[in-house]
Amino acid sequence: MLTLPTLTWVVLAVGAFLVGVGKTALPGVGTITVALFATVLPARESTGALLALLIVGDLFAVWSYRSHADLAILRRLVPTVLVGVLAGTAFLAVADDAVVRRVIGAILLVLIVLTLVQRAVAARRQAEATGQEARVPAGRRRARAAAYGVLGGFTTMVANAGGPVMSLYFLASRLPVLTFLGTAAWFFFAVNLAKVPFSVGLGLITPQSLLLDLLLVPALLLGALLGRRLARRISQQVFDRLVLALTVVAAVYLIV
């Protein structure tokens, strides 16, 4: 690891920086990091190295937004995410990597369209309600949580791509910026911790990969600090648009 070329270190440092920004300000950037790490490291080894960095980023995000998480949403998601993880495990047993990535990319594009349609319908209904707040029925909220939870568990299991799916769910739930980031922080901290035993068992997390991560932590912290400042200044409209744009980038990357 310590003999890697200078350009490789630069790419990894940029990736670690983006992990910090993604965890504290712009969910969806993480997919760019996945691409960067897989470009300069062997694909399998890159997933283990990235997982440890993601957990460091999760810790920083949880500490930064610990009082903003929507615990009710998290409780609704847990059972369905587990179902998605099991479905993803079964899918991996019969599908190759190329099929997996394209299926997830297609799912993301469909979800983006559905999110935009739901927002347009909700805006029209709210306008027709003469200023009264548009409320989503409890049954529909539960069904939406179940659908996104299964998809989130499925995608995070098969391609570490659960971030964009859950970002769309949090957008659909109309969470304010800080609540969005706090809820996502706790969710992904729990999910990534659950992956650790499997990654260690597969030999993806090793002393060498942990040493690499240790050297990249300063870049991650720099990105996290910048992200915190950005998150507290960014408007809700700009935040929502950036999340959608980054999700489109993630979907196209997975398909191509």
UniProtKB/TrEMBL annotation:
Its main location: membrane. The chain crosses the membrane at residues 46-65, 77-94, 100-117, 175-194, 200-226, 238-255. It is found in: Cell membrane. One of its GO terms (cellular component) is plasma membrane. Keywords: Cell membrane, Membrane, Transmembrane, Transmembrane helix, Transport. It is a multi-pass membrane protein. InterPro entries: TM_pro_TauE-like, TSUP. Signal peptide: none annotated. Belongs to the 4-toluene sulfonate uptake permease (TSUP) (TC 2.A.102) family. This is Probable membrane transporter protein. It comes from Georgenia yuyongxinii.
